[in-house]
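pasting input
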Amino acid sequence: SQTIHQWPATLVQPVGSPLSLECTVEGTSNPNLYWYRQAAGRGLQLLFYSVGIGQISSEVPQNLSASRPQDRQFILSSKKLLLSDSGFYLCAWSLGTAALDGANVLTFGAGSRLTVL
Amino acid sequence: AQSVAQPEDQVNVAEGNPLTVKCTYSVSGNPYLFWYVQYPNRGLQFLLKYITGDNLVKGSYGFEAEFNKSQTSFHLKKPSALVSDSALYFCAVTPRGYQKVTFGTGTKLQVIP
């Protein structure tokens, strides 16, 4: 069965420090991978998504970047954190094929809560 | 551009009563539509989806949703609410053939004992 791991679960960082959140998926190949941010426990904002190694689509201009160095690994980074980067970050994956049943159903990780002070 | 609107920030319903959580969408072409649920400090869990065919879709935990193409809506329903249904519910849409999934702002469902 497929599993998704996301870490760290909780992170407190000072303004101006770097960030690295990591997400890995097991039990599948060539998944689509996503990073979402949830602010104040409500709406989900799509930050990045990837349909393959080295292929990153950025949805919102911001202080963050994403990389996909391996097929099942997705990393969210920042060189210098801002206060506004605080939030709950969710990684998700979906099937990368065009199978009709199950297409685009997202499976989410447990999330990483980032507090920037 | 695709978008999803969930017009109610919060829905309160008494236990045992039917519940409805509203969702409308905007997308080019035919959509895939989804409902997800989130419990506090957790990731989202998939509830149900509309791909094609029957407009009434049945999902997990007794939930169902009705796709209405003319009204571009995909409301979530349950005949009899449980206290354990209290959570944050998200509607999502993606155009067919694309991988970008857009979520609504979420509706907090509170089931009152």
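fyi The CA atoms of residues 36 and 46 of chain A lie 5 Å apart.
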